[in-house]
Amino acid sequence: MDEILVNQTLNQIGSQAKRAAAKLSQLDTVTKNRLLNQFAAELVTRTPTILAANQKDLRAAVDMPAKFTDRLKLTEQRIKDMAAGLRQVATLPDPIGNLDRGWTNEAGLLIEQKRVPLGVIAMIFEARPNVTVDASALTFKSGNAVILRGGKEALNSNLALANTLRYVLKQAGLDENIIQILHDTSHQTADDLMHLNRYVDVLIPRGGAGLIQAVLKNATVPVIETGAGNCHIYVDQFAEEKMAVDIVVNAKVQRPSVCNAAEKLLIHQAAAAKLLPPIAKALEAHGVELRGDQRSRAIVSSIKPAQDTDWSTEYNDLIMAVKIVDDEQAAIEHINHYSTGHSEVIITDNYQNSQTFLNQIDSACVYVNASTRFTDGFQFGFGAEIGISTQKLHARGPMGLKELTTTKYVVRGNGQIRK
Amino acid sequence: MDEILVNQTLNQIGSQAKRAAAKLSQLDTVTKNRLLNQFAAELVTRTPTILAANQKDLRAAVDMPAKFTDRLKLTEQRIKDMAAGLRQVATLPDPIGNLDRGWTNEAGLLIEQKRVPLGVIAMIFEARPNVTVDASALTFKSGNAVILRGGKEALNSNLALANTLRYVLKQAGLDENIIQILHDTSHQTADDLMHLNRYVDVLIPRGGAGLIQAVLKNATVPVIETGAGNCHIYVDQFAEEKMAVDIVVNAKVQRPSVCNAAEKLLIHQAAAAKLLPPIAKALEAHGVELRGDQRSRAIVSSIKPAQDTDWSTEYNDLIMAVKIVDDEQAAIEHINHYSTGHSEVIITDNYQNSQTFLNQIDSACVYVNASTRFTDGFQFGFGAEIGISTQKLHARGPMGLKELTTTKYVVRGNGQIRK
Lengths: 419, 419
Fold this sequence. Notes:
homodimer; alpha/beta; Aldehyde Dehydrogenase, Chain A, domain 1; Aldehyde Dehydrogenase, Chain A, domain 2; 7-stranded parallel beta sheet; Ald_DH/histidinol_DH (chains A, B)
């Protein structure tokens, strides 16, 4: 469907991806792992070429902010890190071919539910060249062809990286279109990719809130929403002071720019006078700007007034909004209303309150007495991460290799017909 | 997002559904089962009211074809059948609260992946009032609020049925907005529902290909695509004649109007001269019109010429297209190109050919030596079915209660922070 919206080149790319995916789906694990290690070796070999391409991008980005160019910049060490990432993915268990379950039905059919690749995965991302390699590693290991559309500012770097991987595929006699990258980085082509329903099995956007919202609003291909994190910590009446200070500080300041950093602090009214001052002091010592409601400002005078928009804003910065709540139920209602459904924490020593919070909070990850910063594929022990899903369909929370697969039912009979 | 596209009434309905879903998600299994049985009892009690409402719809549909009015028509027996369906859902295991897996990570956090409801499920369906009850039963048991948008020709019937269920909810002191039905059956409102991203966790369309395609093309809320079935049977060189005849006839004629009926017959060239005549004879004896390629028509002269469009058409009727293929690989390529990814069968006694077919066919259900008609939640043993997914994301194949759920990660710590 929707071919009319899609320019011919993108249709060709889609068709090539589908053909490549069919062959890749049959490739054995040993061969896939060998190729992942060859990807790594070839990246290191081509370091000068890759850095030269990256220099072109960096020269064109000379007027961009330092934060931007830092993400764009490749170094010898960063290429080594990407190679190490590829070798690490080679060591992970391959989900393809696993049986989720199997049974014999009343008619005597043996029914097995078997893990298979999704097929063709499209990714739209910003000017971070490492995504080209990281995403290719995970989609390749899980048996999927990938269509990459990176930010235009990283095009030379992305092409140098993708061409390295494609060269290895070709040398091995495989279809190089297992990994494709769009040379055309126009908005129109990104929009067309969002409508390439005939070929794209799932589209995963990776980047800021603007990119994610644009994809959600426009795409007709299936999408996995990732990375929006307006994460909350609720300090209950029965919280232990040192634990509350340590967790709130860690969740806010350890890496404020990422989606699993905490953005909001809710405190039970009965504990606020005791617990808010030491928490606020510790946060401010780390340079955190606090914005709060009237009740919190009455306790700690350095807290600035919060606006209505603060409650729904993901700062990704050293800012935290504070609110005093009447009770746990008020905290839960506030969170379920304003949260992006990523990660929420209760700090408490009360059993019943911990249970209520775990049951009633509607987010991908709900914690008792731990930092939100653990919502991460590596921290969870998956050995890899393609992103953190904040939607409910297909995958929720950190996504590893298994989340890049689907299943099919394999049914063996001996002549059964339906009565 | 997209609130600007949505009229106020629909926003209210969505907001009510979300509130109702939060409470329903906490309801225990025993209470849900008791209510399902009370739904059943109240439906039977209200039989005269429901039939009177249905008569109104039937009088307005007097000029519609018999096939249409047959689906629209309710009888005392059909209401009893709906009640029996509700009682059957009450007997099924409740997926909510199950743990899919659990482990302790390196930091000592106990991580559990727990089954929870999706939240708010929207359904768009055609003039089949039984969907109102069947869908409400499955969404209720799996802890989800539902927003139903049925065909305008069945509005009086759907309202009478939904109001019966809502009355039972209210009598039990529960939120009646667990089950809501749109009174406004305009296309605009259906379109708005497809863009109600703020409240709708998944939209499941049920109906013909036109409805499904319209939803896929327009919706920005997550969708599960159901019911498109261009199903193939490949009769291999090593097929047993009687089995081939029995399975092809059963798959084509037992219920030709449904999505798991076979639409296409592919036969290996080396077996065609022997097997096509008896298969064609048996199909024609059941009134099936055959359309074929030149090679099949050279063997059985009664076969009409097939057009290019035949290969991609789902007839849902006593029509079958026939093609002679050079070998198994040609059959697999044809199927993966033209199939809707629903159900495909190989009939063979050759081990290697059965393995190749099972591995390389990219469809929800792949069979050896059995009828496509088994692709069905009840036949699979799920005890219920909300539809058959032909997409790869979230659910693939027959969907029961589990496919109406998602998971969340519940994480218990004792003060862990990220290093």
